[in-house]
Each structure stands twice: as structure tokens, then as C-alpha cells.
# Entry
Amino acid sequence: MSVVSLEMAINKVPGASVVSIVVNRSRDTKGDMPPHSVRITVDGGYDREIAHAIYEVTPLKFSRPSLWTHSAYADCTINPCLVGNVAVTIPPHGYVIRFSRPKPEQDGES
# Structure
């Protein structure tokens, strides 16, 4: 899974655009990201379509679902885990794809 392939796949989803992709490749927690994790922030598009685009370019199909079904902090030592404030379950295997949405701007912010 590469950042470029993730961005290309998500940007093909109608109305969706990647805001950022942050990767923590270290063995340490960095800010609010557990070790070996990826946070994808996407603006626009439908959650389910974005989740399917992420699923198609990640090694999920070759892993056990339990390795990718994470809460905010999880053991991500075997495969990188996805973190975010949106969770979509991909049937029929039950993989949970996580990504984030941008925080809405407050009135008066630019």
C-alpha cells in the first residue's frame, strides 16, 4: 500500500478529495497515532465508496480481519492499521475501514 495509490484511488470516488495522508511508520505513538498506523483525511464523497476505494488498494484481502478492525489505539505491529473518526464495515468479511473527515470550520475561522 502506497500513499500515492491510496490518494489516486480515493480521488476517483465522485466528490471525494484527499486532504491528507499521515503515516506513522515508527514503533512509537506519535501524537494521537499508534505505532505503524495510517490516517487518511477525506473531504466529500460517500463514506461507503471511500471505504471501498481504500479497501481495494490495501493488503486487507491478504490479512485476517482482526488485524484491521481497530479502535482508536490498537496493536498495529503486524500490518499498519487505519485510524480515523469514520468507520465503515466492508461485507462479507467484516473488515472495518477507518478514515477521517476534516473538522468543520467554526464561524469566524478562516
Q: What stands out?
A: The helical segments are 3-11, 47-57. Residues 61-74 have pLDDT under 50 and may be disordered.
